[in-house]
Structure formats: C-alpha cells, structure tokens
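Hi C.,

You asked whether I'd gotten around to modeling the 354-residue construct. I have! Everything is below, sequence then structure, no commentary in between.
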Amino acid sequence: MRQIYRKLNISLITCTLVLSQTALAKIYSKGNASDVTVTTQPILCLAGGASDDLWVDGWKHLLNASGGGDVVIIRPDSGRGTYESWIFDDSGNHGLPKVDSVTTIPLVKAADALSPEAATAVRNAELIFFDGGDQSIYLAMIEGTPLETALDYALHVRRVPMGGTSAGMALLGGIDFTAKYNPSKKSSLVTSELAMKDPTAQYVDLDRQTLVPPFMEHVITDTHFSQRNRQGRLVSFMARAVYNNYGDVNPFNIKGIGADEGTAFCYNTNTGLGKVYGTNSVHFAIGNANIERITAGFSLNWLWQRQAVKVYSIPASANASASFDLSTWSGIGGTAEYWYVDGTDEANPVFGRN
C-alpha cells in the first residue's frame, strides 16, 4: 500500500498537510512506505466493543489473513488512536503477526472521505478495520463517496479481511442502526425500553445503503450487548426492519447479531462459517413468527407463544469446535433459546426469553 508521508531514518510518519478542500487533513502511518503484494484471506470480524486485548486471538486471525500486508484503521473522529503501536509494535506483547505497515485515517469532516489519498490507501490495503465511536459519523461521512467505492472494492472484489468494533461493527451490518437521532434532549442512548415502547420512532432509524458484507444482507448488528441489556433493543430493531417494508425482508428472514464486550465473531466471507473469540458471547437471532403488533406510535408486541425470535448463543469459552454458519444460520457448541417482546400491556412492553 502506498503511504502518504515519509520521514527519513525513522518508521513513524506523522504529518499535517495543507491541501485543497477535498484532501485529507491528517493521516498517520507506521511501517514500510512502499506498497506490497501478498495473498490475503476473506475474513470479517464483528467485535462488540471494549478492549481489543480481550479478543486478541481474533485479531491474530485477522492479521494472519492479511498475509502480513498493509493495515488501514479508519476512525470516526479526529484522534489518532493506538492501533499503530498496538499492531505494528505489538505494544500489548500478544505475539501478533508482523505486518508491513499500519495507517490511521481519521474522518473529521465530509471532505476527508473525498480524499484521493484515503481512497488509494483503502484500495491497496490488505486489512481494513473500523474503530469504535459514533456510527452516525461513519454513515454520514462514507455513504456515496469515493471512500465508500474503495471500501466496496476492497470488500467485494479483492475480498481482503475487514473488521470493526463497537460503532465499526454497527457499520458492517447489512441493515445498520444509524444512531442519528437522539431519543430526547437529555439522552443520546436508545435503550431496550425505549426501542420496545416505539420501534417505529424516529430514533430507531435504520440504513441499508452502506457496506453490506457477504451473508449480512438481512442482518442488523448490535454491540456492548449483554453488558447494556440490549436484547430487547435488537428484537425491536429487527421488527423495525420488517416495518420498513424493504421488500426482501420479512419476519422469518430478518436476523440479528449481538456481540458482547470483549468478544468478536470472525467468519469467512466466502463460506459464512466462523468462530467466536474473546471473553463473553455472541448471539445470533432470526425471526420465527409474524409480528402481532408493530404500529406507528405504539409499543411492540412480538410474542407468539414466547417463541417470536430464535436465538443461538456461543460463548468464547466454548469447545474449540464451536462455530456458527451464516449460510445456514445454524451453529454448534452453543445454546438455543427463544426471545420475545410481550406487549400485552401496551404501556409496559417486556423483553423475555424462553
């Protein structure tokens, strides 16, 4: 991958450019400034947030899939982050596979996604990873830009490994919760309670235009999952996708993936088969019944004998043979149950599991 800046005699490159309005303001890089050509493997990792040290074996899987090539980290803010040191120098002492370089691209303003340098870096990358932050910034910055074209090329043509944590995972669903609208002036968080009380509300806003990885067409992702009690929220998001009447989405093919903190699901984008890495669990949900009530301004009722949504959960501590296949939406080594939202009392919908 071609790097943007080079400072002689040291591998760290940190520069601020004074460029045109369509150029990237800052880019950071560490490692070899020359492009390399290596063989990659088509892996995609969905991480639920918190420390990457907790799912480092998944990172090793990603980095091995990069073939030791050039890594690009994309961030939805002005910060540099720590991935350059964490990956290139192995600052966490995890024994990470060596790579040629690590470049950080912060998305600060709309013009950043129009930068030819950013698009070139992404097109030539052997691994692309989206940091956490605010997914509404990702969607607003990337959609309809040269950067999105480059990302789609890397994902669907070159089939390079890709991943994201927290907001980065949210971006990699086929149907994205945008987090674009706040539920109130006092809070920007859409809780399970709020989503269940009105899944048709403006703050339950979904988008399916940006970055749709293989096997994710009908999938909504959610993060910090068990730690923030987002089970009812994910069920509500799934119901909202049905309500949106996309045409190809119905109550029996809408799906969701909820990843706990410190945990990731990494799968092969050619086959759909993957494993869970980290310290907690990943939960795979699919609709199992028609929705009794999803009406504008009313609470959700998706009950159907307490079997509205089928869920298969795989803990990272499961046997090494545990896996989930997105192509058949089935797994081994985990546990199965049903989730539902009981809206019989319209004013107080309740999430339940069976």
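If it helps when you're writing up: DSSP finds eight helices and 19 strands in the chain.

Thanks,
B.
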